[in-house]
Design goal:
Elements lengths: L6 H22 L11 H7 L32 H4 L9 H12 L5 H21 L2 H7 L2 H17 L2 E20 L2 E17 L5 E4 L5 E12 L8 E7 L2
Antiparallel strand pairs: 1-2, 2-3, 2-4, 4-5
Amino acid sequence: MRVVFDIYTIIFLALAVFIFLRLRSVLGQRTGRERPPYDTYSARDAVRTPASNDPNDKVVALPGRNQAETPSRVPVADSAERWKGIAEPGSALETGLNSIARRDPTFEVRPFLDGASAAYEMIVMAFAEGDKRQLKDLLGREVYEGFEAAINDREQRGETVETRFVSIDKAEIAGAEQRDATAQVTVRFVSKLISATRDREGKVIDGNPERVTEVTDLWTFARDVSSRDPNWKLVATEAGQ
């Protein structure tokens, strides 16, 4: 049997092949450089921001950051009750504590003082023992450099310090302020301890290894409230009254 193709069949076949090849060249081949599909809904959500009158409000809330960063988000109307027994209403201390609470709503005085008291004892003992590694984790840079220099001088003279804690009788907030992203809280410590410094031969040259001494210190702790790091560091020290 012989198949006969007329001229019109050949023309249509040629056109079909031509069209198929054109479509394949435009749509059917993947090069690996194609743009991903554009999701208009996710793009719209990404630029949607919560309503706020604060021009400094952040568009995106980063994981682990405090969600309340503006005064309107922190209820400070009841600050007199919140800081009762800690700060007098209308005082500079109350104002400073409110400023910190606005930037860090999780801030509470009692847990802070507990941590500061523990740090106070650790720092005093680490300084006496010359433990620079522990001090570096607890102190701000400038304070650490001062402590380190004192330890180095003491070691060069061959002196040793013996310190024993008896008690921390008082730990109270003496000052508070918010400086940009940095919260600073000053604590007045009243403690009792036994301390003596000995020379190379073991002779006591300062203090008394048998006497309890009352010591008052004003220590300032600081923390970057925009950081995920919850730890406070000692940034200033002075003798208190």
